[in-house]
Amino acid sequence: MGQKQLFLKACAREPVERTPVWLMRQAGRYLPEYLKVRQQAGSFLNLCKTPALATEVTLQPIRRFGLDVAIMFSDILVVPEAMGMKLDFLEGEGPVFAEPLRESRDLNRLIRPKVEKKLGYVYNAIEEMRAALPSKVPLIGFAGSPWTLATYMIEGGTTKKFTHIKTALYRDPDFLHMLLGALADTVIDYLNGQIDHGAQAIQIFDTWGGILGPKNYRAFSLDYMTKIVRNLKKTGPDGERVPVILFSKGCASYSKDIATSGCDVISLDWTADAKKIRRQLGDKVAFQGNLDPAVLYAPEEVIRKEVRKTLKSFGNKPGHIFNLGHGMEPDMNPDNVQLLVEIIREESSHLLKRNSKKR
Amino acid sequence: MGQKQLFLKACAREPVERTPVWLMRQAGRYLPEYLKVRQQAGSFLNLCKTPALATEVTLQPIRRFGLDVAIMFSDILVVPEAMGMKLDFLEGEGPVFAEPLRESRDLNRLIRPKVEKKLGYVYNAIEEMRAALPSKVPLIGFAGSPWTLATYMIEGGTTKKFTHIKTALYRDPDFLHMLLGALADTVIDYLNGQIDHGAQAIQIFDTWGGILGPKNYRAFSLDYMTKIVRNLKKTGPDGERVPVILFSKGCASYSKDIATSGCDVISLDWTADAKKIRRQLGDKVAFQGNLDPAVLYAPEEVIRKEVRKTLKSFGNKPGHIFNLGHGMEPDMNPDNVQLLVEIIREESSHLLKRNSKKR
Known about the structure:
Chain A has 359 residues and is α/β, with parallel strands linked by helices. Helix content of chain A is 48%, strand content 11%.
């Protein structure tokens, strides 16, 4: 191994010369080169399941923007699919489970998959990605949180109201806990496999934690993520520490609780008051975030102003990875992403240089 | 005037013998008697604009459940319509402004309406409602917050991504501030008219404040609501104080800021930690909320448990109005609403009796 990569240093709260940056959903429909591969793949799921194509789209934003980290191209819903649920992605509608889970006996339809067999295509992709990536760019693996996966499995797809999972939560919490427990076990197997095959960091996406109040968030989402964090391998095959990032969207006010999970990094969305949260949590964890993605619709001077604000809000202590507060959107302009990445480099170098002189 | 109503006492943080209760969207599609009137009206907008029908549906939940407060039946989007924007409600799609606002010159299409003329149907409805309501049941008037109205006027309807208003916020904040200022002025006129015609309390609905980070929330939403609160008549024609309730969904963590607006009551959604927020804010304001509406899908024992938790979380100081953390949904069972209201009466009477003995 050469020098420790910038991103992994920041995750470990070691000093860096500039703030590392990656962007949630950095591979995707806003990139013309992605759309080409997507068409070639035929379907979105086929793109996820073909290691050569998944590798190509994972590398595209690295090549184009020189980002500091790659995240494997995949989808969180491959886990429920591996557990036996039929998954479709319908054009314009998003993911659909035609036979959602609604009560305890539906759990009989689920299996605990042998991840090497059922999700081997992800592991093959990770190995291809690692081989293709420059060694200075580490690779992030990921999974959905049990709560977030359960929302899709119970609702049957994307929802605004969460009627079925909320009904389960209040009417039949045992069913929900059984499902969440089964998901946590499978996610542990799945992520440990990712680490074995070369993922150098892990992010857990809890897209829907924010629809829960503080107590239910802890009982139905955070406790299961904590179980996952505690059961992940601490180091990869190369002996390096594999940091874990938790991203619970809309849950900034639960950060103190989230830090107790044992995660290395808390990823904040754009509504979070980073300054306040860092002050509360001190040096317990590193942070990732949290530029409002909509800043990418703005002209250069606004992007610069907002980048400066974001960098300053995280303060001058080590342990910040720059990211958006949510994912890239298809209508965003790749040229603005280029600009954003350059501005982050410039501004964070200046800021960190100034700060080191002050000390 | 007879004795001060329970709801108005709670708004003024005066002691009550039981916690008053009403439910956001208490008149609506979950009630068969509403559906009948809705059909009779032909269109949703026609229902809003026909005082006799609006009065009928306002009274339905009062008659059926004996709730402690009525809220006038109307829609927040009658304000942009009165300002000159063509509004349609499409079946299954919700509200649509076919010609949304996108830049400064689009503001030329807006007028500052003479509210007595353009929104006189609302005032006529308020007078009919007051005449029909028992005197122990006060009537709440309402308006959307400037920020929330602007999202619909700029996006053109319901959205998940808020692309256009966010683009305006970062690219052309002057345009946005001009629009928000114009909306605040009209809302002030509109609400003062409601007070003149008999509204005994005012609620401002800020459904989309939660998509903003703390600084932008203050600059683009709270500041305009504060302007409204400061410019409302403090008392109605009967000389009674007219309390103002602010409801910014997803903004519980901004409660300290919200209290500086001068509002009398902060309405909290179900994700709020009421105990913590009341502890932080002490006796500055009263609170409304915040049962998860999905509890209405649960059986009686769960409803009772969750009502107890909610009552306890607001503590034993005066100044709590029981409500849901968000609105009723069309698939909810009216029998469970009846049960909920009875349970709140019982449990809050017990709790308040126990507490008064302790003192």
